[in-house]
């Protein structure tokens, strides 16, 4: 699966942007503060429904704006181009769309846009406890094993 197009509105300092992405490597180049990390953050938002830099929506939504939106086009393994999108408002409410269907759950987005984030802070994988390493691996398994999510939910409930 590959993210082949990314459309962002009112996300951090990005008022509007529309990028065609390569299905291979993509490099983002620009001055400090120009929004490179914000683009990565927007992709993360599209796949997880939240930022990796802040838990507060008010930090991520562009100043003075009521909501942010991130849309993408995912090329599936069968070569189908699937439009996906999320809109998040300041009160935390969200609308998720996959294909033509509105009102989807965040977990459905996570299934169509598999993401694995490694940041400069990622050394916590080595320095912090096994909990972090398990969470990292769990997330990888989520995408490769179809039964994982259901089993993982049951284990969490049993704890
Ligand atoms: N909610 C927001 N609204 C508007 N601008 C923002 C908001 N949050 C952060 N910014 C600005 O957006 C920019 C984000 O830059 P960043 O993505 O970190 O750039 P880079 O990774 O290219 O250095 C910074 O200049 C910051 O001041
Ligand atoms: Mg940066």
Notes on the protein architecture:
The protein has 159 residues and is of the alpha+beta class. It has a single domain, classed as 3-Layer(aba) Sandwich (Rossmann fold). 34% of the residues lie in helices and 25% in strands. A five-stranded antiparallel beta sheet has the order 2-1-3-4-5, with helices on one face. Strand 3 (67-75) and strand 4 form a beta hairpin. The longest helix is centred in the C-terminal third of the chain and has 15 residues, at 130-144. The relative contact order is 0.14. The model has no long low-confidence stretch (mean pLDDT 90).
Q: From the 3D coordinates, which CATH architecture would you assign?
A: 3-Layer(aba) Sandwich
Low-confidence stretches: none
Termini separation: 33 Å
Summarize model confidence as the mean pLDDT: 90
The first-level CATH class is given as Alpha Beta
Helix amount: 25-40%
Q: Give me the secondary-structure category.
A: alpha+beta
Number of helices: 6
Instruction: Describe the main β-sheet briefly.
Output: 5 strands, antiparallel
| Number of β-strand runs | 5
Order of helices and strands: EEHHEEEHHHH
Bound heterogens, unique = adenosine-5'-diphosphate, magnesium ion
Oligomeric state, counting identical vs distinct chains: single chain
With strands numbered from the N-terminus, the spatial order across the biggest sheet is 2-1-3-4-5
Q: Remind me, CATH topology?
A: Rossmann fold
**Count of discrete domains:** 1
Shape verdict: globular
Looking at this structure, what is the CATH superfamily? P-loop containing nucleotide triphosphate hydrolases
Give the strand content: 25-35%
